[in-house]
Amino acid sequence: MEKGAISTLTLKKRLIFLFFLFTFCILILIGRLAWIQLVKAEELQDEAYEQWNRSIPVTALRGTIYDRNKKILAGSATAETIVAIPKQIENPEETAGALSSVLDMSEERLKDIFTQDRSLVYVKRKVEDEASQKVRELELSGIDFAKESKRFYPSGSLASHVLGFAGIDEGLAGIEFYYEDTLKGRDGRIIYQSDARGLQMPQGVQQYIPSEPGYDMVLTLDETIQFIVERELSKARLEYDASSVIAIAINPQTGEVLSLAKKPDYDPNNYMDYPAESWQITPIFATFEPGSTFKLVTLAAAIEENMYRMDESFHCPGHATVAGQTIRCWTSHKGGHGSIDFLEVVHGSCNPGFITLGQRLEEEKLFRYIHAFGFGSRTGIDLPGEGLGILFSPEQVGPVELATTSFGQGVSVTPIQQIMAVAAMANGGKLLEPYIVKEFLDTDGNVVKRNEPEVVREVLSSDTSEQVSWIMEKVVSEGSGLNAFIEGYEIAGKTGTAQKVEQGVYAPDKNIMSFVGFAPADDPEILLFVAVDEPKSGPMWASQIAAPVFRNMMVDILNYLDIPRKVTETEEARTVRAPDLVDSTIDDASIQLQTKGLILKIAGEGDLITKQTPKPGAVVPLQTNILVYTGDENIDDSVEVFLPDLRGKTVREVSEILNWMGLHLNSYGSGVAVEQDPPPDTQVETGSVVNVEFKSHADDE
Amino acid sequence: MLLARQKNLQDYRNYERYNKKSEKRIKLKKNKLIKIFSCFFVLFHAAAAILLINHYNQVTKLNREVIHYEQKLGEFQEEQEHLKIEIANLRTLERIESIATNELGMNYPNEDKRPGLVATN
Question: Is the pTM of this model over 0.90?
């Protein structure tokens, strides 16, 4: 063997070593391959898919909201959203500078967006068409556009509290919030393949996953009734300078809500311009002391329990003494109602009379009926934020509490509870669940789900219901609800005047006037509740404020619903003699007119009436406005007069007032006065011209 | 005799040469066939590949067209939604009322009616 030569054995050993080394390496590689292919495959595949695919979201169109006649109340259309693909942006500073003014965003904010380590980022969502067009014209690399659904409310503020509004991604208030899952649908995407720089590959596979629109909704709301109600609420708020006015109209046979409104309201298209408090659905959320409208509960309970006989006589001395405490009637200043029967107790809304009925029922029965009518529990309306109301707990109820509750003091209810309780009295005794969505429709217009009337419980017998309706009809045709009377129709109703409670005590100048009524009384088709909260001008009586508002709404609604008038034997209009109100205070005059069917309209700042028209003793049709002047100065002899606030008054009233004052009217438009020049309290010479603008639909904002 | 033998040998050699030449020719023919067949084979596969790629291209093109038309349909639907909103905007009762009162000079019934005095003392 040569020196230095490798022996065969060593060679063999080396070969074997190499063999094992290679085998080991290959085994490692196989193991790694198996790990990647079998264990990590899915994860890596997803990562790769994400790396080579880009997707642009296609937001689903929200379902359209229609009124009961299929008129669009809320609809969706697409708006463009500006998106950025940071990897494609060559110069973030330059791009930020170019976009800053167009999108009204700071350059720093835009630079932050463009330097994010993400494949796709939103720059600005749902921009106006004009802005998106400007961005398009800039032809910036890395800036793209995506379509998103934007909510539009064509009728502006109409039914804003019911509809609510949708923000960028979801419903935030009203129906939009309550039915978010049904309305929103499912988003789609456009997926395309991109290269390492994120650029779209020309022949890359594209995929379009269409979005699924949400269900459409048909509400029970009627756009025309809603419009009538809101128009009259706007006028009332302006005329009485009220902090808010609310109304609800329902079909008392089914519980369908036909209108639900509050003024002031807001425009859901620009909801951010309004304070958050204005978004609250006051008619279902807020609680108030109902006053006399609550007497209907006591009345119905007493009739049902055979504790009421309308011809039974009763004496009202103007007050009632309960457990040593004196509770006054609104007629206490004139010694009470005197000797009347129990029908007149209801007509005259006599507090001592209702205290007697409450005492007959006793705590257990009265409160059983109060709960049975739905007070103290939610009605179940399909809107968010419903209130509960406040009732005395059984341990709190003593003789005084029982007495005050029987005429509507000391309890707190929501307007929707109040109207549903009256609906039960009107429809034969069934307490219904109110609802606002009638049907859900798919994209082809097929009905997916339909809400049906639901009876919560039977509260009264049909006989009691008939009797209550009949008595309520008499309240309107002969009693304190005369200002709600409509010739040719049987209107049943009840007024309610209540003081507001602030920090546990009754606030002296803060009242809430309400009226609840339905028509036709024998077979009701519409039930309407109106409340004027904290009016600052006008007589502080529901019969003078809420009843005329109710009547104005009801006249147009009955016409619209085509409910035929009942032809009476004598077609002559009912008349009434105007009382002498000169030298009376506003409060005394209001009480004088309480059951007369005349409406007091006040001009001037004082409390003592110095002038009136029509003159005392004039025989005028029912519901004629008695215009009174309460200015301190004698306007006949004055060379200069102070201009009163004319807002909320009709052309005729303004003309009459200015005529008294020796001023001339220059009017624009029609409806109620919304603006005047010179403004109120300006001293002007007699013979001057006053410019007044009138509008039929008085806007709140 | 020797001459005859020589001739036979010559013939035999000629025959052998001829035979070899013929074998060569057959071999050449066989090679040619194989070449032609191979060419056809390659050409066939190339054509098939081209057809397949073309088909794939066509499918991709059609797919893109489908997506394009789907997007177009979506755009038309969006336009339709915009128009629906626009119609609803134009049909609002407030707008109708505003045109009636401000542009056409219409009034609500009895709005300016003076109280009808029936009798005075």
Answer: no
